[in-house]
Write the C-alpha cells for this entry.
Amino acid sequence: MHDALVALATVAPRTLSTEVVDPDLVTPGPWGFLVFALLGVVVILLITDMMRRIRRGRIRADIDEQLDAEEAAHRQEGRSSSDEASADESGEQPGR
C-alpha cells in the first residue's frame, strides 16, 4: 500500500490539453474587485455594529449593577432607621 502511494506521488503530472489559456479571461477583472471590495466594507460595518452592541450591553449591565447597589443601600438605610424608630418607641437608646 505504501509503495503504491509513493509511486503515485512520484509520477510526473501530465497535461491533457496543450491549449494556452489567455490570462485576461481567467482573472476576476473589475467585477471581481468590486465584489471583494463590497464584501470587505460589509464585514467592517458588521464588526463595527457588533462592537457597538457589545459596548451598549456592558454599559447597561454596569448601570443595572449600580442601581442594584443603590437599592440595597437604600433598603439597608430603611432597616437601620426603622430599628432606631422602634428603639425610640420602646425608650431604649440606639446602639446600647
About this structure: Residues 29-90 form the longest helix (62 residues). The chain is about 80% helix and 0% strand. The mean pLDDT is 82.
